[in-house]
Amino acid sequence: MAHYDFDLFTIGAGSGGVAASRRAASYGPRVGICEDSRVGGTCVIRGCVPKKLLMYGGQFRDAFEDSVGYGWDSRVPPFDWPTLLQNKDREIDRLNQIYITMLAKAGVDLFTDRGRLIDAHTVQVGDRTVTAERILIATGGWPVTLPVPGMEQAITSNEALELPALPHSLVVVGGGYIAVEFACIFRALGVQVTEVIRGEHLLNGFDDDIRIALETEMTRRGIRIESGFKPERLEQIEGGYRLTATDGRVLETELVMAATGRAPNSRGIGLEEVGVAMAGNGAVKVDDWSRTSVPNIYAVGDVTDRVNLTPVAITEGRAMAETLFNNNPIQVNYDNIPTAVFGSPHIGTVGLTEAQARDRHGEIDIYRTSFRPMKNTLSGREEKIMIKLIADHATGRVLGCHMLGNDAPEIVQGLGVALNCGATKADFDRTIGLHPSAAEEFVTLR
User: Fold this and answer.
1) 3-state secondary structure of 136
2) Do 21 and 112 fall within a single domain?
């Protein structure tokens, strides 16, 4: 029998790689992991966590403004961007150290160098090589920009988290959740924001009613949305940049942010050389057990381009560890995964959109309401909440729940449990609402 340095060696110490490595090590195998950046991956270091901290920073403007209607003598005080960045960085440093400590306590050997496959069982890590019976690829994703002349001058979500100063004006190129979130963050912090999208509406793939309602609220907050805008070139001009569209439209701005998607971070680590099958966009192809075309090499998380969410990567990693090292075969179920977009206001969604439900189930029932939340009655804010529930007409089973409103992510997480339990509209109806709350609308819809 061959002798290896490790039973499992993981390339990439983000959420999926760390979760898989810790879970595997808990069952006794020798586990190693390598990372050429900071431990924690996209979510902790340059994604969900720092982005949400900036979002919280922007929310205080609403709180100051809304407080006047509740009797407070309030003015919006000056905002200091460097202070927010400094405090954000301190929190990221703390979380990074927690991840390092968790690996150490689990008995996982951490290598702070880039890993590259030499063969199916050997990884070059810095200036040394290690061998492993099984190898896990968990290298995540990376921002990509449009193949447009000059677009390399735009910042991405990575740089947006480290800007030395806030720009006066910003054009965000893209209509996905990252573009929406950063557009809303920077607008809340006082930046003049224009978001340009190639299609008709933001958030392709989300429920159409929610997409349109979000656009209404973002526009109400002063974000300019330019639809059907196909960038042709980006040029640097005095004091900023000029973005030109194929139809001749021109936008001049201090800064441009490209938020047009992410690609699997799979190049240059030896995958193709050892025979791992990959898709055209660089995604590592895997089966239902996260196994690649090379039997002892596995992949989880964004590098596989399945469902690119942090909790999914963690679930995939733990499922792989349970299957291989605990004699507990687990396949991940990708149905009814709750999703949030932390724009202004937030979106929470779980299950099928209306279009998906019609396509898969034919006749469906739609329940929808829009209302001004109680808090806004005294504050004077015009922003509305929108709630939508989709059910199969024949069985009554709830197929999708969608909400626009700042409590949406917290509410929809619980609804995800109901959908995974097969709840019907009748089950929702016989549940007594918690009053007064926005959440009660889900059990009173008619």
Assistant:
1) strand
2) yes
For 74, phi and psi rounded to 5 degrees?
Answer: -120, 140
Residue 387 belongs to domain spanning = 339-443
The pLDDT, as a whole number, for residue 75 is: 86
Residue in the block written with tokens 């993981």 = 10
Q: What is the pLDDT of residue 274?
A: 97
Cβ neighbors of 35 (< 8 A, separation 6 or more) are: 12, 13, 17, 110, 111, 112
Q: Could you tell me which of 350, 365, 352 has the C-alpha nearest to residue 408?
A: 350
Q: Are residues 137 and 267 in the same domain?
A: yes
Inside any domain, residue 184:
yes
Cα dihedral sign for 118, 121, 123, 129? negative
Taking only the tens place, the pLDDT of each residue in 357-387 is: 999 999 999 999 999 999 999 999 999 999 9
Residues 275 and 314 in one domain: yes
Q: Is residue 318 part of a domain?
A: yes
CA geometry: angle 230, 234, 238, nearest 5 deg: 140
Q: Are residues 268 and 402 in the same domain?
A: no
Instruction: Return the number of other C-beta atoms located less than 10 Å from residue 424's C-beta.
Output: 15
- Same domain for 32 and 93? yes
Q: Are residues 316 and 247 in the same domain?
A: no
Closest Cα partner for 229 from 118, 349, 148? 148
Judge whether 116 and 123 are in contact, CB under 8 Å. yes
Asked if residues 137 and 130 have their Cβ atoms less than 8 Å apart, the reply is: no
**Residues of the chain with confidence (pLDDT) below 70:** 1
Neighbours of 7 (CB within 10 A): 18
d(CA 98, CA 233): 43
Question: Residue 303 carries which DSSP code?
Answer: G
CATH number at residue 294: 3.50.50.60
Query: By C-alpha distance, which of 144, 54, 136 is closest to 91?
Result: 54
Q: Which of 3, 346, 393, 435 is catalytic?
A: 435
Total-model pTM = 0.96
Task: Quote the pLDDT of residue 324.
Answer: 98
Asked if 159 and 233 sit in the same domain, the reply is yes
Asked if 435 is an active-site residue, the reply is: yes
